Amino acid sequence: GGSVRFEDVHFAYDPDRQILKGITFEIPAGKTVAVVGPSGAGKSTLSRLLFRFYDVTSGRVTIDGQDIRDVTQESLRSAIGMVPQDTVLFNDSIFYNIRYGRPDATADEVREAARQARIAHFVESLPNGYDTPVGERGLKLSGGEKQRVAIARTILKSPPILILDEATSALDTNTEREIQAELDRVAEGRTTMVIAHRLSTVVNADEIIVLEKGRIAERGAHAELIEKG
Ligand code: ADP
Ligand code: ADP
């Protein structure tokens, strides 16, 4: 399950300024749709509506045909995972940072998620140079390592729906490629909305929606859109 539909969605943060103006698209269960467009187009607003940080002004958002306004916050949060551009870690070990979002997980499950994200070697460390209880400095994580923590979180939580919001855009080219490959693996079989600036980063999407000023300007497969320029 987990198909996501935006149906004629209009949205405004302030009544006098429409941000989304009649957005309709579907992410079939298990498929990946990329939303591409310039900064300010309304891409992240789509993800905020899916989480119900805000409600649509008109139209509706559904999961498996059910209006998300009829779904509890708890089930919405457990159904949706997100990897943001910059993963913020809190001052506790990587272990607890991975377990965030699924506090019921066993230690073995957390370690297995860390192993799959290839960060098993620093799972007990503290992030970001925080002082450890014994007075040593914690790890200074690179951008790529922080995204691996976010990936481990997602593997552990295993949500049917995944949002990747510019998840590689803060990384250098080599790290971007590496993390993108990990994200592709994690997205496999999940209903995935990828938010990106550039077409070149979303080659594998089943469909690409080009958003401009709150409207869908173009849509299609990667090859079709590249052809049109
Ligand atoms: P994108 O992700 O495509 O860069 P956003 O969805 O973040 O675009 O933002 C779309 C528009 O909504 C922008 O003009 C932005 O300034 C405005 N916006 C975003 N968040 C808020 C907010 N909380 N209050 C008012 N306006 C906002
Ligand atoms: P908590 O449930 O612990 O209070 P949050 O309310 O911060 O956590 O976030 C709930 C979920 O929403 C998390 O999966 C988080 O990654 C995601 N999230 C947080 N901020 C944003 C955002 N600006 N846009 C979309 N998703 C977000």
From TrEMBL:
**One GO MF term:** ATP hydrolysis activity
- Compartments it resides in: Cell membrane
Can you quote a single GO CC term?
A: plasma membrane
For this UniProt record, the keywords arranged alphabetically read as follows: ATP-binding, Membrane, Nucleotide-binding, Transmembrane, Transmembrane helix, Transport
Q: Where is it mainly found?
A: membrane
Looking at the record, the residues that make up the ABC transporter domain are: 4-229
Its family remark reads:
Belongs to the ABC transporter superfamily.
Entry protein name: Metal ABC transporter permease
Q: Which organism is it from?
A: Pleomorphomonas carboxyditropha
